[in-house]
Amino acid sequence: MVRIRITVFRTFDTKEVYGKDMPMLPANWQTTCYRLKVGQTFISQDGGFPEGFCPWAFADIQRDLTMLRFGCNFPGMPKDIIYSCCTDGLRPVIFRSERLPD
Hints:
By secondary structure, the protein is an alpha+beta fold.
């Protein structure tokens, strides 16, 4: 069984992304992601969806998780680790995913 630990590494709010408040957006959309908090960890087993994880983010990083699952490593990254991002254009989240030893 291959296990991958997904850690919420960094979250951004709308002002960090755009450099200013976005007056056309409701105030509650200008915060960081409401589902995930920095430091949270999740375990994906054999490529499965981790309990409590964001479905949108999982769809975004699933390709990277699959590559880690099958032993790929990435240039410039430590062995068995990758950093990925969800595609929420208002409040992106950076994830650190690492393949755990068998």
